[in-house]
Amino acid sequence: MSATLRSTLLTLFAGPLLLAGCAATGPDAAPPPAVSTTASAEPSAEPSPEPSGESSGADAPTGEAAWHRFSTENGMASIAVPPTWTVEGGAVSSDVGEWQWIWVRNSLRHEMALLRLGVGGDRGGACGGNVIAGTSDVPARIHLVEEVDVTGETLGDAPPTYLYAATVERSDGAFAFHAGYSLERPADDRMPCIVYDDVAVPVDYPQVSFGVPDADIGGGLWRVDSLEAGEAYAQTEEYETLMDVLRSLRLQAGS
Q1: d(Cα 37, Cα 218) in Å, to the nearest integer?
Q2: Are 252 and 158 in contact (CB under 8 A)?
Q3: FRET pair for 192, CA 20 to 30 Å: which of 20, 55, 62, 203?
Q4: How many other CB atoms are found less than 10 A from the CB of residue 30?
Q5: Based on the structure, what is the number of domains in the chain?
Q6: Closest Cα partner for 250 from 205, 203, 196, 184?
Q7: In 10 A of CB 42, how many CB atoms?
Q8: How large is the C-alpha radius of gyration of the chain?
Q9: In the chain, which stretches have pLDDT less than 50?
């Protein structure tokens, strides 16, 4: 693996998502260049996961054409996407841990979500700029919060995990849309200034995160003009499809 690719992937896996004071792109903007998984990312021999060819009522909205389900290379996590969306996946091993991932792109090739599964790496990050007094939160308008069961039949019970969508008012005066998982139920009017999109998992299970990716690593945290503009995006068909993709996450025991 080249030093450049290795550095990019470590940033991808370890970096938090800053909801305060970082640049972002809009949902309708052309996506930045994708992270390449076709280079020699080790130990992956096949850079893309294979579809199982199966779908169920939980995979797609009622009445939609059959969605396709894709798994990480170790089969421990899978997601479903509609026929016009695509995925790209792979794995990397380094001195800070081992990770597998799946990028999700819509029909315009915009990077809509990133699934990560693995262990190791620095989870750091610090808030910048102004936050709500006495907290590490930024103001937000919450569009959706729901408790989701992502464990498959081969896993025991996991703590509650929450799927959310929100538009945040960042400390630099800009606004951004974000959606993903959380270990805690978001409040009605605020979000932490740093989010990791963590999924609650059973004891001794690898770390899992799934959500809209950060703009600094190729799309996500989409900039919008206002809280109202974020609310308007949350009424679109694309938003509904994105949330169904996020809901489709299923975790299984390792082989």
Answers
A1: 13
A2: no
A3: 203
A4: 10
A5: 1
A6: 205
A7: 14
A8: 17
A9: 1-15, 20-58, 216, 218-220
Q: How far apart are CA 225 and CA 93, in angstroms?
A: 40
Q: pTM for the whole thing? A: 0.76
Cis ω on the peptide bond leading into residue 43 (within 30° of 0)?
A: yes
Structural domain for 188, as ranges: 3-251
Strand partners, 161: 148
Opening angle at CA 39, ends 209 and 1, nearest 5: 85
Q: What one-character-per-residue DSSP string does 125-192 give?
A: ----S--STTSSEEEEEEEEEEEE--B-TTS-----EEEEEEEEE-TTS-EEEEEEEESSPPPSSEEE
pLDDT tens-digit readout, 99-151 = 999 999 999 998 899 999 998 666 666 666 666 666 667 788 999 999 999 98
Bridge partners, 171 (sequence order): none
User: Given the structure tokens 């959706």, which residue do they identify?
Assistant: 144
